[in-house]
Sequence to fold (772 residues):
Amino acid sequence: MRTLRRSPLAMVITGTLAMAVAGSAFAQDAASAGGHSATELDKVVVTANKRSENIREVPSSISVITEESIENAHATQLSDFQATVPGLYISTNGSPGKTQVSLRGVSPLSSSATVGTYLDETPLGSSGIYQAANFFALDLLPYDIGRIEVLRGPQGTLYGASSMGGLVKYVSVAPDLTTTEFRVGGGLSSVEDSGDVGWNARFGANLPIVDDRLGLRVSYAQNELPGYIDNAVTGEEDINSGKQTSARVAMRWQGETATLDLTAMRQTVDSDNNAQVALDPDTLKPLFGDLTNNVFVDEPFYKDVDFYSATVNWNLGWADFVSATGYSESRSNQRQDSTIQFGGVADLLLGLPEPGSSSFDIGLDLDKFTQEFRLVSKENGPFEWMAGVFYTKEDALQTQVAKLNQLDGSPLPAPYDSIAGTLAVMAIPSTYEETAFFANGAYNFTDDFKIGAGVRWARNEQDFSQNVTEGILLPIANTPNSSSEDVFTWSLSPQLQLSDDAMIYARVATGYQPGGPNVLVEGLPSQVDSSTLTNYELGLKSLWLDNRFQFDLTGFHIAWEDIQVASVVNGVSGLVNAGKASSTGMELSTVFHVTENFQVGVNGAYTDAKLDEDFPVIRAASPPYLVEITSGAKGDALPYVPEWAWNATADYYMTLSNGWTAHFGGALRYASERRNGTTTRQDILDGTTTPPALLMSDVTPPLELDAYTAVDLNAYISNENWTFRAYVKNVSDERAYQSIGDVTSELTDVTEKLVASPIQPRTFGIEVDYRF
Fold:
């Protein structure tokens, strides 16, 4: 445990939290704060099945992150949530928006996502395989978000493509047609041992334009992220500062039988450098000191998302008709320092006196249109049903540019600048078009027994081209291709009400990750097929002790087939369908209201996710030798999935004098060891013998990330208008990592360092909000 440095901001926050602990001693019998009932658990309404339902009655594993939880923890990105949701695992590469998400161990092993993302009624992010959705998950700054629903297990029947592991659904705050409200706020934050101070500001307004008919809601938030990574090359400190912004306008019109919701939103992420640390490849210790990297070329990351939606809810009397229209534009640009990988071209290939510096830029542009129509039955009989049609069209472009300069960043001397100044320029335009029909229903055989089922048929058609126009690393060529496929998914979910407060359910559901076209080259299939899985689960949802104790337990087994993995044939990369994997585990979620004012909770997951078969062997001829490479071995754990993960929370609410209330909370989170990939085996054989004789075998196991435990604290006091918050993240300043990878020269095959993204170091923050 590191010594707590007494910066002014740290002293203010520590003092606030200390007074909070001391003040709780004389308020054991006080009423709960701000109307927060601690005597029984609140009814939580979710829209997981695309209709409003009590979460206690939905036969599926769902976690809800409330607006209060988001604000108390000052959560600003997806990685802030993973400890609160059983089975949710997130690894980041050092910036919001550079995020890999998995649920129940279903890691994205290929270039597309396995967990879907929705904003209200609209999917966001690409379903295709050429937008790197596996590493760039949608990562919203959650301001003006009412709740986040996390659906575990495949959601293929209602939510379609790329939701095979589950779904993260942001539910925004809708305009209130009767209440005028304004909100302003801001805060400061400071990272341990950093000279950089972060700040944030926010504004929101709700305006009824015509009472009970027309309302408007606007909001804006800006979050300046403090840096804490130093650069050993230049001596610069705190290089990873960044900025997030969120702007939203929402309008609601309420008629006699219909409601129209219009939304426009823009979110941006602008990061100066990655929050990554250089580690020794052998010892995994910091190469240049704590929280220090060696960066020759700055690695900025920028992402903006423009989102527009129109949703109509029309009460037909006998059913509800819903039309959900969405359009989004997403632009991402990332620069990677590739000096170690390609800088040796300057001296080793061109014969210059010293290595050069190199940069690798990747750009991702996506325009996505979606339209869904559905009919939803009324809840006035034993049979509930829903039927709909869904359409989406994506136009996407991925660009890759690799450059080589002198070590100081200036161009190579002539004539080398024209020969090798540009190492590669490649563009990958692609389209994804899908039409789907879906239906689900549930029949109440008795008051206690109900069976639900769902089906979905989808067809997608895709086009792409890999266009290499410049450089010495890849052959100049245009290689177009197209693909099409039909996919059918289904679900079945019986449920039995054991009592008024306990329900047991079973669920069998399927999901898929779309395939797509490959580069046309001998040895690669013309297209990779969809990856599919089947999820089996048995769950208990129960309330005890007069609704003061919630106990939910789920066991699951996932059978995953036709896994999409990368393959290289004759220097050309593509995707192939590999073998099988499985994930088996249990998820626990509990909340106990010990007293009127005090509640504790524990949630956790055990996940055994592994490959059940070796990945396919990739063969390449290099006369007189034959090289065989396998990138995954039977029994390998799936990447970045801890076997054990849990989170314990405690919250205390109290009433102060003169209308003030208070809350004090803490969380203890734990994640066990994880691995960053799968085992690679390279065999070199004598190609002149029959059969080829094995000459050498090299096995490279994946890198392992250590287990860690971290503590977070938060507190607030509030009245009708004011709220003052303080928080400390990672109180003990635990040094652990969320992701790790090697940096290896492409010319010498020498790994010079590892780069790892640490969990947020000890961070102090204060916040204030004023509502009127």
